[in-house]
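#help-structures

NK: newbie question. if I give both the sequence and a SMILES, will the prediction place the ligand too? trying with thiamine diphosphate
OV: yes, paste both and it writes out the complex. here, I ran yours:
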Amino acid sequence: MLGDLKDPGAYQAPLEISGRDPGLLVDLLRTMMLSRMVEEHLADQRREGTIGGPVHLGIGQEAIAAGVSQFLRSSDRVFGAHRSHYHALALGTDFKALFAEILGKETGLSKGMGGSMHLWDEPRGFYGSVPIVGGTVPLAVGAALAAKLQASDAISVSYLGDGACEEGVVHESLNLARVLDAPTVFVVENNLFSSHMHISLRQPSDSTARFAVAHEIPFEVVDGNDVLAVADAAGRLIEQARSGGGPGFLEAVTYRWLGHVDWRADIDVGVARSESDLKQWRLRDPIARLRAALEAVGQWSPEEDKELERELSESIEEAWSQAMDDPWPSDEALLKYVYSSEGGA
Ligand SMILES: Cc1ncc(C[n+]2csc(CCOP(=O)(O)OP(=O)(O)O)c2C)c(N)n1
Ligand SMILES: [Mg+2]
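OV: that's the protein plus ligand as structure tokens.
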């Protein structure tokens, strides 16, 4: 059981950062702030109707991808799902190409053919996201097995949700990864919800780590809103996978601030999520907790914070207007990339 890890009130204090490299901490802060601001921009644009399709936003969950990505190389193979903008951004994906993809433009990460839920950035090791819940989990095991057969030290990462753990293919994938010793690190972002249903209505226990136990995969369960707790645990599991020790399983407990899809925070309220829970989780903000810790020891100041925000905001605005001006794909491109494998994608 998750115990107080799922109690937002228990984890609102600034992070413990003594002995940590300040430069690295500021990098983590920057990665999380970029994700947050890019997604806030997407929320605004979706509300205004500029974005035609749905966007599933991970605002509030930024610490997980930021912490995990710290140990990844561009030769690794990372897989996401329907809520994956921040998984790619934490790997360094160009947010202008992300914007272009979401707008359906030719310059998008998937040539404008996929939108928000079909992202692809192979040069940075992002091997794709798809909206079929659980769909990329076996692909991550396959990609890890390929790396192992190629005698490379690349690993794969499979980001999945607590809801995805209800898909049979996830359990087959965990079993196969263990039996084949595939170097996959499964990262379960347990935000306690699958669409509008709380985990207590869907599973007999609130912790998904029991599935790692069932398949004899080493696991860690952490506060997913503590970027350092995530990074420490991910570092251990990634190192184990990279050095031939087989799969690992990280359960990171978190919460999404917005509703299941798009910009509204209140669509889940009254279903199984209370307004007071949301209020408390917003105080367990992964960014504010790191920022407060840095400020307390004089490694960061409100002025530096404002400056970073201004800089990010400017580049986001610029990237957005470029993406808006970019061309649409041609009709031929549609036939070439969607209906035929001739041209590749
Ligand atoms: C196979 C499949 N079943 C159902 C859906 C509809 N669906 C989309 S997202 C989602 C919830 C997934 O929850 P979780 O894995 O916890 O991810 P989260 O949205 O919380 O990030 C569902 C049921 C789907 N896309 N694919
Ligand atoms: Mg979930």
